[in-house]
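batch_manifest entry 22 of 60
target: Nucleoside-diphosphate-sugar epimerase
source organism: Lutibacter agarilyticus
requested by: lab member K.T.
priority: normal
notes from requester: please return tokens only, no post-processing; we will run our own comparison against the previous entry in this batch. if the run fails, retry once and flag.
--- input ---
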Amino acid sequence: MKKNISIFGCGWLGFPLAQSFVNKGFFVKGSTTSEEKIEVLKSNNIEPFLFNLEELPNNILDFLNSEILIVNIPSKNIEGFKNLITFIEKSSIKKVLFVSSTSVFESAKEIITEATILKDCPLKDIEELFQKNTHFKTTILRFSGLLGYQRKPGNWFKNGKVIPNPEGVVNMIHQDDCIEIIKQLVLQNCWNDTFNASADTHPKRRDFYTKAFLEVGRTMPIFNENDKKSIKIIGNEKLKKTLNFEFKYPNLMQLPSH
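--- output ---
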């Protein structure tokens, strides 16, 4: 019997994630905010739904007629998420994977783990909305900066924009690793937990962006040399140990140029 999974947000990460679950034999429902993408989802055997968090449709319960829900949208709209949760409570959803961000952490001298205190921010409040709800199990997955394929770091600072904190470090993760981590959390039934996800290495921003600019054919980036150094290193040991996970792209200085 096929497992049903619903993916709220079939964009840069959610769409290939949905394809990956289809290939694993799941029946997948996916949401999009773009009418043009409806046919794309259909042609990839993903049941399409057109809506956004701010205007949840009358057929939202049809979308939520699954066992598992993956919430993968960048919104910080707390009221919108509260409204979504009221519908989840009425649905067949038993497990929620909420894709969050390591931006919930301040810079720190020590390596940041899942036990590190979060800063006060909307994303922290949204995480808690899901975690505290007893109608379903929630796992929080916090990704560092997302890159890979169309998202090339060498294109991020355009029109002479100065890059801050050159002596700081980068925390990033490739799309392929993001997809595999989500799949493994689902397949290994890792619920009611929290994970930080970042590649193994944390090169200096100066080194990383200099290489990234050269890879897309741009001249040397401009750095703010007066910007004070702040460090934030996201640890991934809990994730690797729990899932027995090995990153496809552990070294951010050795990424493919695709």
